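Model it.
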Amino acid sequence: MLSVFVAFAVATCSPSPLDSGDLRSQTATDTILSIATPDRRNEPPGFEPIAEHDFSCTPGAGCAEVGVWRVFRNPENLSLDEDRTAVMSPNGIARIKFPAGFEDGGAPTRFDGWGPSMLPPEEVAHDQVYVSVFFKVDGSGFQNQSVGTKVFYMAYGSTIRSNHSAMFLDGSGPAKIMEEMTPSYYIYEMRDDGSDAGGGAIHRAPNVIPRRVRVGEWIHVEALFKINDIGPTRDNGVFQMWINGIQTHDLRDIRWRSDVNPLGFYHFQFTPVWGGNAGEIRTRNDSWSVDHVYISAR
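Modeled.
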């Protein structure tokens, strides 16, 4: 059975991937992230790289280390730069601009990656996937939307839908400047009858240790996705996430797919959608930096 795991850099002890372990030793006394480190300690053994980009060039320009990459929309809001504080690739980072005047419900830009190709989904899907991403919310504050801002997105199950699952930096009421944000994950599951819900995402807050992303600091996110069984459909899919080595999520009851919509994980996007559709408009310029993206599967 194939698998997909997504990872972002983290730095602390945590249970082994897919093993609940002893969580009692992880305390929540400090809700601020530890320091991002370059190791991918939560990538399970036996996973092989399917896509990787270090931003020595724009996604799609031919410098990807592994896989196929592209900028999907609004390239004017995605630029290349250097950042000597970057954990993995200080000589090449991507910078995403969130411009003043931008209305909620859309992404200022988006880039995609997968391997060995992006299509057709049924030929490139995996049952287990790991993703590792280093990113930073720049500056000393970020104007977050009331619901939050999406970070990355993983597709599965069906190809006829607008949303699948996504990491979020949660908002806190009407659009406001935030210095710290809670990392959550939204998951669109299949209905009981196996049909595609298409909407109605479930907000999954941290269920292991509550952590918060601090503006101005690099973080390493690691995420592991394991598909659920079908024939018959079971609610035993897995999602795990770590932030700078601290495990935030350990979910083992997910219906990623069904007998009716059986696709495994087949597509990754870094798509920073600014919230929902509340009619909020940005009043300032902000930016994020992305250092290194790595995806492996088994």
